[in-house]
């Protein structure tokens, strides 16, 4: 009796063992089949070596149908297609364009005439007051030039230097080489007043002892200097278009006895010595 029981028990254990082996073998084949799509995807980062690890870890669970469905969801080719479609596209970095700026350029230098302190002589004083300011007791010396509402200018001499022109304000220089009377001034100083004179204007010469003599403007002549910085330049008469040498111009202006000439430069085209203006006046009365 005991022998029969042992035989039955042995058979039962055998068949149970066979069934368990069959179940284990079947479950292993199921998971291996799900791993194959992974190797076929070719997606970088999901190689065949990873499939083996995942398959073994799932096999330990001793699968059910729910496990099979989960593994399909995670490792099918469709799932990898979804991963691919949701991949983040990184745009290439484009360097910002270089903005060229205009080269910094320095501001132009504007030349201005030197600032010269004014003398105490006012342009709007009366002739008598002005004469009182410039007298020195010397009746043979010219000390001032006056034209009502235009200028009241002190006069200085050249003292042997025919090229000297005063740089003092409200001052003109008597030209020693003139046959009559000649007066010079820079166009950025007292010479600027010469342009306010007109035909018929009265210019009064004041002497050191206070006596005066009047001249009336009879001509205003303007010339372009062909060589502005040269004292020997030829000149073009702006009224007639004729050309004169420096010598001819001298004799037509300063070479005429008895008349008075006021001279300054004409500024044009950025050149302060572009031309010359001569105010010619003859004695009145």
Structural summary, described in words:
It is built from six helices and ten strands, in the order αααααββββββββαββ. It is an alpha+beta fold and 285 residues long. It has two domains: 2-85; 127-283, Sortase (Sortase, Chain: A, Beta Barrel). The protein has an eight-stranded mixed beta barrel with strand order 1-2-3-4-9-10-6-5. Helix 1 runs antiparallel to helix 2 (48-59). The longest helix is centred in the N-terminal third of the chain and has 40 residues, at 2-41. It is extended.
Features:
Sortase, Chain: A; alpha+beta; 31% helix; 6 helices; single chain; 285 residues; eight-stranded mixed barrel; 10 strands
Could you give a short description of this structure?
It contains 6 helices and 10 strands, in the order αααααββββββββαββ. The chain has helices spanning 2-41, 48-59, 65-75, 77-85, 127-134, 246-253, and strands spanning 142-147, 151-157, 171-174, 181-184, 202-207, 212-225, 235-237, 243-244, 260-268, 271-283.
User: Which consecutive residue ranges, at least 5 long each, have pLDDT under 50?
Assistant: 23-90, 98-123
- CATH-assigned fold name of the largest domain: Sortase, Chain: A
Count of DSSP-assigned helices: 6
The averaged pLDDT comes out at: 73
How many separate structural domains?
Answer: 2
Can you identify the CATH class of the largest domain? Mainly Beta
Proportion in helices: 25-40%
How are helices and strands ordered from N to C? HHHHHEEEEEEEEHEE
The overall strand count is 10
Biggest beta-sheet profile: 8 strands, mixed, barrel
- Distance from N terminus to C terminus (CA atoms, Å) equals 183 Å
**What percent of residues are in strands?**
15-25%
Oligomeric form: single chain
Label the overall shape. extended
- Derived from helix and strand composition plus strand pairing, the structural class reads alpha+beta
CATH H-level superfamily title of the largest domain = Sortase
**What Rg, in angstroms, do the CA atoms define?**
58 Å
């Amino acid at each position: 009796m005991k022998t029969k029981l042992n035989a039955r028990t042995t058979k039962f254990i055998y068949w149970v063992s066979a069934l368990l082996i069959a179940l284990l073998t079947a479950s292993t084949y199921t998971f291996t089949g799900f791993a194959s799509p992974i190797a076929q995807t070719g997606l970088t980062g999901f190689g065949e070596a990873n499939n083996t690890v995942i398959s073994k870890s799932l096999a330990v669970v001793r699968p059910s149908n729910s496990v099979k469905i989960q593994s399909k969801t995670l490792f099918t080719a469709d799932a990898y297609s979804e991963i691919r479609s949701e991949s983040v596209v990184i745009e290439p970095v484009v360097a910002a364009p270089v903005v060229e700026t205009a080269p910094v350029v320095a501001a132009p230098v504007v030349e201005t005439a030197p600032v010269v302190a004014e003398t105490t002589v006012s342009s709007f004083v009366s002739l008598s007051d002005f004469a009182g300011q410039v007298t020195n007791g010397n009746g043979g010396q010219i000390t001032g030039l006056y034209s009502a509402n235009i200028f009241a200018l002190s006069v200085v001499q050249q003292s042997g230097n025919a090229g000297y022109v005063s740089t003092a304000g409200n001052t003109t220089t008597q030209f020693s080489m003139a046959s009559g009377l000649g007066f010079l001034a820079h166009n950025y100083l007292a010479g600027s007043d010469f342009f306010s004179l007109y035909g018929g204007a009265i210019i009064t010469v004041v002497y050191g002892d206070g006596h005066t003599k009047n001249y009336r403007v009879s001509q205003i002549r303007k010339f372009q200097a062909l060589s502005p910085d040269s004292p020997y330049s030829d000149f073009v008469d702006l009224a007639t278009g004729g050309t004169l040498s420096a010598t001819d111009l001298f004799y037509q202006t300063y070479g005429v006895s008895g008349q008075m000439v006021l001279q300054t430069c004409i500024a044009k085209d950025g050149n302060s010595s572009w031309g010359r203006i001569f105010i010619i006046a003859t004695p009145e009365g």
